[in-house]
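Lab notebook: predicted structure, single chain.

Context: the supervisor wants predicted structures on file for every construct in the current expression panel, including those that have not yet been purified. This is the next one on the list. No modifications to the sequence; it matches the entry in the shared construct table.
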Amino acid sequence: MWRIEFCSTEFLPVLPEQCQGNPGAYGFELAWWLAQALARNGFITSYPIGEDWGWLIEYISPSGVEFTIGCGSIGEPGAGYLQAPLKWSIFIRPIPLSGNGPRVFPTHRRYRA
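Prediction complete. Output recorded below exactly as produced.
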């Protein structure tokens, strides 16, 4: 699993706290932005899917390898509405294939979002 962490005031929640999956579990705006940025570079994902810890998008490569891309922020309830930087986390986890399917190797290509 690969993980990226950063602090930012970007991607703060738009909808009120009671609309979040769990209090303080943000990430829809980040997942939606990431899905759009990936699509602009030819990587078509699912729409964001809500989880109790944040949001995820799914990507299936042309060779059939599936990836789960999780987006979230861990904070106190209401922290997303203070206009202060939050600590964000993106993880990328390949879903193992059964049998002798293709193996997953990290890519070194860079894409501009």
